[in-house]
Each structure stands twice: as C-alpha cells, then as structure tokens.
Amino acid sequence: MNIKEAIYHKLMELVKEENVKVDELLKNHLYTKLGGKADFFITPTSFEEVQNVVKLAKEDKIPFTLLGNGSNLIIRDGGIRGMVINLKHLDRISTEGDSVIVQSGARIIDASRFALEQELSGLEFACGIPGTVGGALYMNAGAYGGEIKDVLDYAMVVDRHGNLLKRDASELGLDYRTSNIPQRGDIVVEAAFKLTPSTYDEIKHVMDDLTFKRESKQPLEYPSCGSVFKRPPGYFAGKLIQDSDLQGTSIGGAEVSTKHAGFIVNKDDASTSDYISLIEHVQKTVKDKFGVELEREVRIIGEDHK
Known about the structure:
InterPro entries: FAD-bd_PCMH, FAD-bd_PCMH-like_sf, FAD-bd_PCMH_sub1, FAD-bd_PCMH_sub2, MurB, MurB_C, MurB_C_sf, Oxid_FAD_bind_N. It is found in: Cytoplasm. Its EC number is 1.3.1.98. The protein has about 300 residues and is α+β, with helices and mostly antiparallel strands. The protein has helices at about 5-10, 45-60, 110-115, 135-140, 180-185, 200-215, 235-245, 270-290; strands spanning about 20-25, 35-40, 65, 75, 80-85, 95, 100-105, 120, 140-145, 145, 150-160, 165-170, 185-195, 195, 225, 250, 255, 265, 300. The longest helix has 19 residues, at about 270-290. It folds into three domains: about 5-85, Uridine Diphospho-n-acetylenolpyruvylglucosamine Reductase, domain 2 (2-Layer Sandwich); about 95-200, 2-Layer Sandwich (Uridine Diphospho-n-acetylenolpyruvylglucosamine Reductase, domain 3), CATH 3.30.465.10; about 220-300, Uridine Diphospho-n-acetylenolpyruvylglucosamine Reductase, domain 1 (Alpha-Beta Complex). About 30% of the residues lie in helices and about 25% in strands.
C-alpha cells in the first residue's frame, strides 16, 4: 500500500466514503471556475469530523488547506497538495434571541436573507456577497459601508491541534479585509452575529437598494473572484484601472471587466495563469501611470504545476 492509499484508508475511518474525493478538480467547486486538482478533497459533515481530520493531518504531517466556495480566491493550475477541507455540508442557520447563528459553510448572502425573514437588521450589507460565512470572517468581508466586524459576536473554531474553541470577535484581529484567523491556523466552523430588531419592510428596502446597485455595476454574468484589489489610500482601484485604459484588456480567457474595472472576469475558460498574468499587468500599468501600488484583495494559492 502506497502513502496515498494509506491516507485514504485513514480518512475512511473518519468521514463517509462519499465525502472524500481523490485527485478532485477544484475548478468544479469554485466560484471563479479556476484551479487544478486536490490530492484529497474532504467535505466533513460535523464539527467532530473537522476535528478528527485536522488531528490526522497533524499526526501524519499532511498539509491541509481550508477552502470555501472560492469567491475571493484563485487556485493555481497545479492544484493543492495534501488535504483540502471544504465545509459546504456545515450550512445550518438558526436564531438565538437577537443573534443569528450560522455554520461556516453557509453563504453569507443566505445568512443575510435569513436575518431578513427574522426581522433582524445588521447583515443587509452582505446581501450580495457570494462567499461563505467562514470566508467572510477570514477576510472580514464587507460592502456598501458595512463589514463583518460590525456585527460579529463570536466564532467557534477548530484550532491547528484539533480543539474546538470559542473566540470572541475581539480576538480575531478583524480589520480592513483581513483577520488573524490564517495566522492562528484556525478553521471557523460557526459564527454568531448580534443583530438589531427591525421590520421586514425596512430591511428589505435596504437590501433591494443594495442589490440594484450591485447588479447594475458588477459583471455578474461571468465567473470572477470579485473585487481584485484593495482600495489604495486616497484612491479607488477601479477608477485607477479605468483611467489607465485597461477595461476590456484580456490575457487568454481572462478580461478586465468592461462593466466594472475592479473586476477581472473568466470570460472564456481562463486558466489561473491567464488571471495572474492579467493581475500583474494591471498592477504594473497603474504603477507606471499613477505611481500607485495596487495590493491584491484576492488570495492566490496552490502550485503552478503538479
């Protein structure tokens, strides 16, 4: 039995067979439709299964990567070695008083809609964010003046040793599009949002307005990784890119959106290499023309070639 078979058999003791895939093509699971294969693609169905997989990875020194739906992530064409853990089956949403409790595999947009049904205000800003709740905490996602840190009460996490812990929002280092979650090596499995009672009509009005703004300005007709760059101090990334005459510029199947310059869309079966080359071209052009360094908001992980 080789090492890969041995790992597979150990995983079979921890999760159901249908929840472990070998050499799984990651582009099939990502919002961006980009990325090579994962050696092992694991979809746990409970906190305990997450803990057990993490403990196995630690004991056998197997690298593991946590993956949401990849709405703000680019995976290189060579894929990811070791284990990729995806929490799509942890998607329960419930209420506790004025709090909405959401497992990390649920989409933040669904948490926002659930809060509307419960007449709880505070998550309206998230009504158009396509990422998972875990991913939203990982990068302190935000839109239209709101962000996760404004409403997060606490998170339940599995730490790098496989322990299930409660972390208050103040412990997570939430700042503009960042947190200390990756540095700690935590896996968020649940989040609690402290919201404010309101009326269905008032919340719906705000959400409808934000949805209109999003749909009229963002290129939702193509896969993309969302807003590619962070907002540089004193500027807007999209305006700098637009003023650099980069809209419509393409490399391979990747294109700077003609609808919103801050987005790069997968217009024609782009490879990750296409995406990264275009991102670097945009950064260089803006730097040469305006002297401004555009910092990526989107993460890039994985290997160039397996």
